[in-house]
Amino acid sequence: MGTAQALFRLARSLGFCGVMVLIANGVFTGDAPVLGQDSTANSDQDGLQAFSQALQQIDRDYVDFLNRRTRIEESYAQVLKALRESEQDLQRIGNEAIRQQMAAIQARLQSARMDSLMEASRQRRDGRDNPNGRDPNNALAALNAPAKAQAQAAIAGGKTLAEMQFALRNSELQQLDTTSQAVIRKRLENFQRLNTLEEEYSQWTQDWSKFFVRYWPYSDFERAWNEDKVQEAIKVLNLAHQDNLAAMLTNARLKCRVGLTEEALTLVDRVLDAETALKPVALAIKAELLMADGKEGASKAALQSALKLDKDNPYIRWIRADLLADQKQYSLVEPIWTSFLNDQVFELPARRRLALLYFNRAISAKGRKSDVDFGKAVKAAELGLELEAKPSYLSHLVYGITLYGMGKNEEALQQIDKASDKASGESLELCREWERKVKDGEVEAWGFCRMFTNN
Questions:
Q1: Sign of torsion, CA 194 196 200 205?
Q2: What does pTM read for this prediction?
Q3: Which has the higher per-residue pLDDT, 159 or 263?
């Protein structure tokens, strides 16, 4: 199973305030980068260009997605207008039972979510100069409708359609004159169109959450890329649509890596201000940025807020594990990364993370405990290497580091040499630094929240 298919399966299990739990297959269009690579698969400009184009495609898809919302809004407004225009014709019909039946069906089709969508859209178009200073530049706040409510609405819609069919067969309708029958049938058609638009909007809200899943691999969540690749991604993400909140969060993580922490925090705060289903993961990313900025207390508070909102969110848990690992709280981290081993999206990076965790823990321990952890580190790294048909530089490097921990220096240098052949830029420098450590007998813990050394 490929990375894209595995991400489909993961998406079904996410919380995101009840939205992402309904994500179905089809999240990706083959745009995910290779995990653990630095600049490109072959470290050439063609590969970097392909990477950039794939990242741009996600934003183009997002723009198409927003246009889909606009089409739903316009259709919704047109149907409401048609219903208003035919109201007087309905009142002229002398059959009170038919009028009451039409009123009951219309009441059943009132959609709070569609009304919210239209209101949010009006604010987006007319409220840019909002005097209170809050930026209402998107309609995404309407996306917090829980999955349970969406399912209930679908059931209600099905009943409404059944009522429509009953009305069409009702003998009372046949007693009306031709003009009155035409009025009733036209209103029923518009009611049915409203129901269809409701279903389309429900699907639209579900599809929105898929974009974060698509962007996640572009956040360099293993900190494996060199700076050229990070800067290229930032350049693309800077041009993303102003309402693309998933792109903002991805951009924030990458900006932090190159030392632009204040810019990163500004982006995350924009996402938080939007009050969407991405709030929990945005808080976790804010915790990551605050820790990088040396604000440990604020970081811990933001992370606790994220966990309180969605403690089972895999992205929040991954970020938490990185932060804890960087603070050497390995006993808390190990079960988190271990829990990812049964998930084909996270299994490879989790094995590499565990290998490095065991290595770090082993070098700070003594005696038998140290030997056990060194052995576990090598095993985890081997399994990670086996998961890739063409192992990345990072897999070779991690394996080399763990072999070094076992005292197998020659084998370690061979793996590090293979890593160097596939790396470039800062990634190559990292490989060479570990080669020097092995040759000099120097031992150092792996940094799980590494920044570029020149930032």
A1: positive
A2: 0.77
A3: 263
